[in-house]
Amino acid sequence: MAGKCVAIGSGVSSDYMLSNYMQESLMVGFNSNLSTFFVSMSEGVNRTGKVGIGNVVDQYGQMNPLAKLHLRADDGEDAAVFIQPFNWARGDEASLALGDDLNGISAV
How far apart are CA 63 and CA 59, in angstroms? Predict the structure, then answer.
């Protein structure tokens, strides 16, 4: 493991362990050698890191979310985000704001 990094979870076996080699980062995963959730280091004071869900690796195999929140599906899975209101039947709304609270997508 790299310095100043945290791995939470477990691998499949001693041959397929969950290991974090990214300095100043957090990986979380269970029953896999790949992390399900990854938080990168920040750029410094008054900055925050990026979050990856799924195996968000670059061409060198290093975890590297390309946006503040980067979701990547596994092979054979759809890349989907599910926003579920508490009670759809009652008319509760599900929404995704884009840029500000005046622009986005909503469903009732």
Answer: 10
